[in-house]
Structures are given as structure tokens and as C-alpha cells.
Specification:
Blueprint lengths: L2 H11 L8 E10 L4 E7 L11 E8 L2 E8 L8 E7 L7 H4 L7 E4 L17 E7 L4 H6 L3 H6 L2 E8 L8 H10 L4 H4 L3 E7 L10 H6 L2 H5 L12 E6 L2 H13 L13 E3 L1 H4 L1
Parallel strand pairs: 7-8, 7-10, 8-9, 10-11
Antiparallel strand pairs: 1-2, 1-6, 2-5, 3-4, 3-6
């Protein structure tokens, strides 16, 4: 173990205090791959958020809090807060955050916010949640919220990654939610999971943007069309800036209008992450 890792472990073991942030305790950590991990923390009783919002989380580094925006992966009703993170090489926060263990403490911002929430969309029939990498995180919150299925007849989660083992939460989205005692009745018949992989053979192979542009996404989903329909589809985008830019351009060309908290419309992106 190198010196920097030992120093980080000593830092994480120290009790945290803050008058500006909540100080919360790590409940669990799961390392999916060398590039992705998830963790859950305690939720303050006063902490309220809408499924799909993000919040600042962080650690003190060199005596100062280093905070980054993270989408909350747990639904608004859950008694803990869940996050899905990359392990960014050389990342100031993630190089230390990936070392957390149950019982450690981290800093949590007090003001969740965001546009990847149901309030920003006009009524529609189908909800498409399109994400790459950790852009899956807000969809994990939204698909575990019963309100989603009350507002939309069908919900499609498309998750694009490089390798098959990068498909974190695949088991949950394919089987776990359907078997859930609380969510199963909402999910069965209402949720469709669509994973796609770019760098190795897979049932849905290719970039998410390519699968949308050539109609493959819609054919695979059994929809009787080859593109999004502004009359009945609503779309949320989260992930790489390239994917968001390209799909947003396709949507606007198809007559979709971008929405916000003040002006609900047909599709939304999280501008705090891409702007």
C-alpha cells in the first residue's frame, strides 16, 4: 500500500464536523469494476428531494471540503441515500472517495436540486431514460418511484457502456425490481431495460446515439416506428456530453422542446453537469 493510500485511510477514519454540510455515515460500498462503484449513506431526517435530483457530496482534502455534484440513485421515499460513481484516474475527490468503507463519514450538501425530475416534463405516454456510464444514476431513482408509473404507461431505461461488465445494476433492472414486494406491481409491464455495449459483442451492440439514429433502439423495443414521437414520448438524458449533444439535436429536429422546472416540456438534460 502506498503512502497516499495510507494517508487517505487515516483521513477517512477521522470524525468529521461541518456547520455548512450534513455529516453522514457510510452504510455500504459495492465495487462493480475497476472503474465504477456505488455506496449508500445515512439520510438526515430533514433531507427532502425529488427522485432524479442531485446533491453535492465530498470529503475534506488538505483541510478544505472538496465537493462534487452527484445524482441521487435512491428514490425519494428511501431511508438512505445511494450514489453511483466512477473511479476517475487522478480525480481529486474520487481517488479518496473510492476508498470509503462502512462506518466512514462523508459530507453531504443541504440543497438537492436538478431538472431530471418528472415535474419538468409535460404529460406523455412513454418515458425514455437515456444514460451512459454513471448517467444511469438518476434513472435508478426515478424507476424506483411509484409516481413514475402513475404518470407514464411505459418506461424505457437505455444504458450505454463500453464493456458488458460495466453494466452495473443490470440484475436489479432485469429481475430485481420485478420481484420487489413493494415495486413489483408497478414495474412488471411498465419498465423495459435496454443495455447496450460498444467494445465487445452483445445483444445490443453499438453506441446509444447510433442505435437511436438508425432506428435499432425502436426495433429492438418492438415499437412500430423508427424514431421518437413528440406527441407521446418524453425523454431524459444524462451521461457523456457527446451523447447528450447528439440526442438533444435529434430530438429538437423531431419537434421536441427542452423543458425546465419553470417550463415543463418534452425532454430534459441536467445543465449543471454539461454546461
Amino acid at each position: 500500500m502506498n503512502v497516499s493510500v495510507r494517508a487517505t485511510e487515516r483521513l477517512l477514519a477521522q470524525p468529521l464536523t461541518s456547520s455548512v454540510h450534513h455529516v453522514e455515515t457510510v452504510r455500504w460500498v459495492r465495487h462493480w469494476t475497476d472503474g465504477y462503484f456505488s455506496f449508500g449513506i445515512t439520510r438526515p431526517q430533514s433531507f427532502r428531494f425529488r427522485s432524479g435530483e442531485f446533491v453535492m457530496i465530498g470529503l475534506p482534502i488538505d483541510g478544505k471540503p472538496v465537493m462534487r455534484a452527484y445524482s441521487i440513485a435512491s428514490p425519494a421515499w428511501a431511508d438512505e441515500l445511494e450514489f453511483f460513481s466512477i473511479k476517475a484516474p487522478g480525480g481529486l475527490l474520487t481517488t479518496q472517495l473510492q476508498l470509503i468503507q462502512p462506518g466512514d463519514q462523508i459530507l453531504l450538501g443541504k440543497k438537492p436540486t436538478g431538472t431530471l425530475v418528472l415535474d419538468t416534463l409535460r404529460p406523455g405516454r412513454n418515458l425514455f431514460l437515456l444514460g451512459t456510464g454513471t448517467g444511469l444514476a438518476p434513472w435508478l431513482s426515478i424507476v424506483r418511484d411509484p409516481a413514475t408509473y402513475e404518470q407514464f404507461e411505459r418506461v424505457f431505461v437505455a444504458h450505454g457502456v463500453r464493456m458488458t461488465n460495466d453494466l452495473a445494476y443490470r440484475e436489479l433492472l432485469e429481475h430485481g425490481l420485478k420481484a420487489d414486494e413493494f415495486l413489483g406491481d408497478f414495474v412488471r409491464g411498465g419498465l423495459t431495460y435496454y443495455p447496450c455495449v460498444t467494445r465487445e459483442p452483445f445483444v445490443h451492440q453499438g453506441r446509444l446515439t447510433e442505435l437511436i439514429a438508425d432506428g435499432g433502439l425502436f426495433r429492438d423495443l418492438g415499437l412500430p416506428r423508427a424514431s421518437f414521437d413528440a406527441a407521446e414520448d418524453r425523454v431524459m438524458l444524462c451521461g457523456s456530453m457527446g451523447m447528450i449533444r447528439d440526442v438533444a439535436a435529434m430530438l429538437e429536429a423531431g419537434g421536441f422542446r427542452e423543458g425546465s422546472n419553470a417550463d415543463p416540456a418534452d425532454f430534459v438534460i441536467e445543465r449543471a453537469f454539461v454546461g
